[in-house]
C-alpha cells in the first residue's frame, strides 16, 4: 500500500490511477479528496494494525488510546468523508458507485459507534465495532488483491472488474469480521 501511495508523490495528476480520471482531476474538490483519501487511509491502516495487539491493549493502554484516537479521527474526519466524495466518481457505473458509497458510510457509522461505545465504557461493543471498522479499513488491501486475482483468472473488461471489487473488496471482509465477532467475542 505504501508503494501504491508513494507513486502519487511528488504531487502529480497524471500518474497511475489518476491517468484514467483526467475528466475529474480538473476539479479542485476531486484533487483534495483524492490526496486526502490516499494520505489518511494509510494512517488508518497503520494505526489499525496496532490496535489488535493484546500486549499494546493491556500493557500499554496509553499507546493503545493514543493510536486509537489517530485511527478514529483519521477515519471520521478525513479518510471516510473523502472516500464518500470519491465514490461519486467511481469507475464502473452506478453499481460501483453504490458499493463504494456504502463502504464509506459503513466505515463512518461503525467507527462512530465504536467511539461512542468507548465513551459509554461499553468495551465489548467498542471491540465489536472496531473489528467491523477495521474490516472496512482493510478493504484498501483486499480490493487490490481481488482485482489482481480476478484479472489473472478471468481477464474481464476493466469496468467489470470495478463493479466486482467495489463490493467484494469489503463485503467479504465484513462477513469474516462477523464470524470472528460471533466466534470469539460474543461467547
Q: Tell me the distance between the termini.
A: 34 Å
| Total strand segments | 0
Rg (CA only): 17 Å
What structural category do the secondary elements indicate? mainly alpha
Count of domains: 1
Helicity, in percent? over 70%
The gross shape turns out to be globular
Number of helices: 8
Largest β-sheet summary: none
Mean pLDDT: 93
Determine the strand fraction and express it as a percent band. Answer: under 5%
Q: What string gives the helices and strands in order?
A: HHHHHHHH
Low-confidence stretches: none
Structure description:
By secondary structure, the chain is mainly alpha-helical. It has one domain (2-185). Helix content is 79%, strand content 0%. It contains eight helices and no strands. The protein has helices at 2-6, 28-50, 54-59, 61-87, 93-119, 123-137, 139-154, 158-185. Helix 5 (93-119) packs parallel to helix 8. The protein is globular. The chain starts with a helix and ends with a helix.
Defining key terms:
single chain; 187 residues; mainly alpha; 8 helices; 79% helix; globular
Write the layout of secondary structure elements.
Elements lengths: L1 H5 L21 H23 L3 H6 L1 H27 L5 H27 L3 H15 L1 H16 L3 H28 L2
Briefly say what this structure is:
This protein has 187 residues and is an all-alpha fold. It has helices at 2-6, 28-50, 54-59, 61-87, 93-119, 123-137, 139-154, 158-185.
